């Protein structure tokens, strides 16, 4: 059935919101469970569509996955299949993270190219190159990444770019390789540190978590573990932008504010008052936001996933902002939808120039990915009248209880079955 959100403009969001575990962490932690025979348990998991999609991928490999509220128990058998179901693989991007664990444990993987957000070309060359350096042969054959190794051995690996996915796959293959692997220019996102924490609990020997050099001393086998997923900094930042954009007052609980240092500093420049508690922060925006420039970069830079919210903020800010996108070229597709709402925006290659206007004008708009969908809902809150946001299944893939949270903060957002 086709669904959309009807968003009524005008609300200033106020209240408190609890953020649970990070999508971009839990899905990789689920893949990590493949590395140890037995039951690995994850808590503080978000109830989002990508979790059962990832469970489908693991079940197609022979695992049993039990999802009970915010707890996921993954039981991995002694004998694993090396070929996950192709259709399940194509439902999400993070499915590609079974590649490293399968090569590590089975020395063989045939993994269909993943799906996920259409935000630009998302090659796997660094994933493959890393696995090759660990001793595997890897090619793309008939729509699948094929990787095979007689033996995996440690290696010195320099990544061209600190890719999250490549870091995760190489790390999860290296934990069971013979000898020491050093991954240089590794991604430093908090979700990578979270993965290192779980792997270490499972018996892996990893040094340098959270830095750009990860040193992995391979071990023979890992054991299952229990782990609490870190709070979702991208969802936390979404609510921070929601407060700043709607001139509201939101307390965000369950996220480490230090994961959002740069984001919160940018919002301060836009005129927000930001205060901190332990694993919580509050953003109050008393007046119309001021224009701010944003440049997307790997962590600790400004996350590309937050770029749509930066554009929404800039669209209603006082003054002109420049947004620079350095990771995914198609993310500016979001701007076409913002222009339906009256945003004054121009793009030129990697840059977008946005001249803020007082109020947007409601219209039907289409979400092209998870973050774009939420960006359009925030924009709808700053428009006159009712905005329809279509293709909201994207939002359900990444935001637990989205409409409930919006309503609790005073927004008039309704899910409509057409
Ligand atoms: C992850 C996140 C996504 C986020 C992105 C960047 C998940 C499920 N998704 O995606 O939400 O926007 O990190 O923070 O965790 N690249 C290559 N070759 C490769 C791998 C990557 O050229 O082999 C390029 C990509 O095209 C992109 C950049 O590296 O320009 C970063 O991509 P990467 O960090 O790998 O993103 P994902 O892990 O796919």
Could you explain the architecture of this structure?
The protein is α/β, with parallel strands linked by helices and 418 residues long. Helix 1 runs parallel beside helix 2, helix 5 packs parallel to helix 6 and helix 8 packs parallel to helix 10. The protein has 14 helices and 25 strands. The strands form 7 sheets. The protein has a 4-stranded mixed beta sheet with strand order 22-24-1-25. The model has no long low-confidence stretch (mean pLDDT 96). The structure holds uridine-diphosphate-N-acetylglucosamine.
Q: Major β-sheet, in short? A: 4 strands, mixed
Q: Oligomeric form of this entry? A: single chain
Helix/strand-derived category reads: alpha/beta
Radius of gyration: 21 Å
Topology:
Elements: E1 3-8, E2 14-18, H1 23-32, E3 38-43, H2 50-59, E4 64-68, E5 71-76, H3 86-89, H4 99-106, E6 108-112, H5 125-133, E7 137-141, E8 144-148, E9 156-158, H6 164-174, E10 180-184, H7 190-201, E11 205-207, E12 213-217, E13 226-228, H8 233-245, E14 249-253, H9 261-269, E15 273-277, E16 280-284, E17 294-295, H10 307-316, E18 320-324, H11 333-340, E19 344-348, E20 351-355, E21 360-361, E22 364-366, H12 370-381, E23 383-384, E24 386-390, H13 393-398, H14 402-408, E25 412-417
Parallel strand pairs: 2-14, 3-13, 9-10, 17-18, 21-23, 22-24
Antiparallel strand pairs: 1-24, 1-25, 3-5, 4-5, 6-8, 7-8, 10-12, 11-12, 14-16, 15-16, 18-20, 19-20
Bound molecules: uridine-diphosphate-N-acetylglucosamine (UD1).
Features:
single chain, 418 residues, alpha/beta, 4-stranded mixed sheet, 14 helices, 25 strands, 27% strand, binds uridine-diphosphate-N-acetylglucosamine
């Amino acid at each position: 059935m086709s669904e959309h959100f009807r968003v009524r403009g005008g609300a200033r969001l106020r209240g408190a919101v609890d953020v649970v575990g990070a999508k971009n962490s839990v899905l990789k932690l689920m893949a990590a469970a493949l590395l140890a025979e037995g039951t690995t348990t994850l808590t503080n998991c978000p109830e989002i569509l990508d979790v059962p999609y990832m469970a489908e991928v693991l079940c197609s490999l022979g695992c049993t996955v039990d999802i009970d509220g915010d707890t996921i128990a993954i039981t991995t058998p002694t004998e694993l299949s090396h070929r996950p179901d192709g259709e399940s693989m194509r439902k999400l991007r993070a499915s590609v993270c079974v590649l490293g664990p399968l090569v590590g444990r089975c020395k063989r993987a045939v993994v269909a190219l993943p799906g996920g957000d259409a935000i630009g070309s998302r090659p796997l060359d660094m994933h493959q190159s890393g696995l090759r350096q660990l001793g595997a042969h890897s090619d793309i054959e008939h729509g699948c990444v094929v990787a095979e190794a007689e033996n995996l051995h440690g290696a010195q690996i320099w990544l061209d770019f600190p890719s999250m996915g490549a870091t995760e796959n190489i790390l999860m293959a290296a934990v069971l390789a013979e000898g020491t692997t050093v991954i240089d220019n590794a991604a430093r996102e908090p979700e990578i540190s979270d993965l290192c924490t779980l792997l270490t609990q499972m018996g892996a020997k990893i040094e340098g978590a959270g830095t750009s050099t990860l040193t992995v001393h391979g071990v023979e086998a890992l054991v299952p573990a229990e782990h609490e997923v870190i709070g979702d900094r991208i969802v936390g930042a979404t609510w921070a932008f929601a407060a700043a954009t709607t001139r509201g007052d939101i307390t965000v609980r369950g996220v480490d504010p230090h994961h959002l240092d740069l984001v919160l500093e940018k919002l301060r420049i836009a005129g927000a008052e930001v205060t901190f508690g332990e694993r919580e922060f509050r953003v109050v925006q008393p007046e119309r936001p001021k224009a701010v420039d944003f440049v997307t970069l790997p962590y600790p830079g400004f996350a590309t996933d937050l770029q749509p919210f930066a554009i929404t903020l800039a669209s209603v800010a006082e003054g002109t902002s420049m947004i620079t996108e350095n990771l995914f070229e198609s993310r500016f597709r979001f701007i076409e939808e913002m222009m339906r709402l009256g945003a004054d925006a121009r793009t030129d290659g990697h840059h977008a120039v946005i001249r803020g206007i007082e109020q947007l004008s409601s219209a039907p708009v289409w979400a092209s990915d998870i973050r774009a969908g939420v960006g359009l809902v925030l924009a709808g809150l700053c428009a006159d009248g009712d905005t329809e946001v279509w293709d909201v299944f994207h939002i359900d893939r990444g935001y637990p209880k989205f409409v409930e949270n919006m309503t609790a903060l005073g927004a008039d957002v309704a899910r409509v079955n057409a």
